[in-house]
Write a structure and sequence with these properties.
single chain, 348 residues, alpha/beta, 11 helices, 17% strand, globular
Amino acid sequence: MIPQFNDQSITVAIVGCGGFIGCHLLDAILTRTKWRVFGVDLDFYRIQHRLNDERCEFMVADLADKSVVERIAKYPIVVNLAAICVPSRYMAEAPEVIRSNYDHPAALADACAKSGSWLIHFSTSEIYGRTPADSGLLVEDESELTFGPVTASRWSYATAKLLTERYIAGLKNLKWTVVRPFNFVGPYMDFMPGVDGSGIPRVLANFSSALVRGEPLKLVNGGVAKRSFTSVFDAADFMFALFETGDVAFSQAFNIGNPDNELTIAELANKMRKIFAEIKSVNVETIPEPEVVSGVEYYGEGYEDSMRRLPSVEKAERLLGFKAKTPIDVVLRESLTWFVNHYGSEIN
């Protein structure tokens, strides 16, 4: 069954619709289709412009509430984006991170299996574990998964997400698709510590915060780890490729990333310094040089890292006809321009 975009009877439930990915998916669905949206989250500040849309119904709630889970599962398509995914919390709040990323989505999967809903579950590229610097392409159904010791609580998030994937795949009668994002970036990503959030956000928001504040970008363990960055707008396009394909995507896990956008974290820092200088019309030499810090010093005890995370995207291209296209310089400029415009007044 392939849902038609002009079918006004379809309602898609988006759990986490007020978050970074959720707000972009919400806008895309309301712009490109005639569907209705049932949105669930704890905070809606990113989607203020949609709160009075007649095609939307919003609920302030989370998946810890059984009645909310049952309500969500009444809709034919359920997209679960909800998660605790702040790196600093993996070490400090491992039990809560595990509950958020396993207990609650497992309950939603049970409800969707019972109701017959198609569950599109957002997992993480971190399920590939402690990948070494010489690791090649990570392939959805082939790559071996290796994690750090149980004392390295940094892996609480990844192991909970992986267990959820295995639980979902084991449920009889569940129509499911798993999405593994590889460093989605763009406008509305994360938060600025001390302004609208606490703790340490993901690397792009972390570097953006430092640039806006005139502080050195912190290179954890020298910034030698490599990542591939993907535009959140490409991610929205992927979701439509998924919707258009229907049951071909059932019982499949997909990497969503852009291997052409791979660079080290140190290279990312230098690119962002140059782009920030261009946005502000200043000489890049006036921007503080990056500063090397240890992972334990920065994140706390229990920190470990993956040294490279490069996605194979062949499966999404073969089954869905999708391939991310936005180059790294465009991705970073979009993200950083929004961040400067949004938070600049908070600092100046």
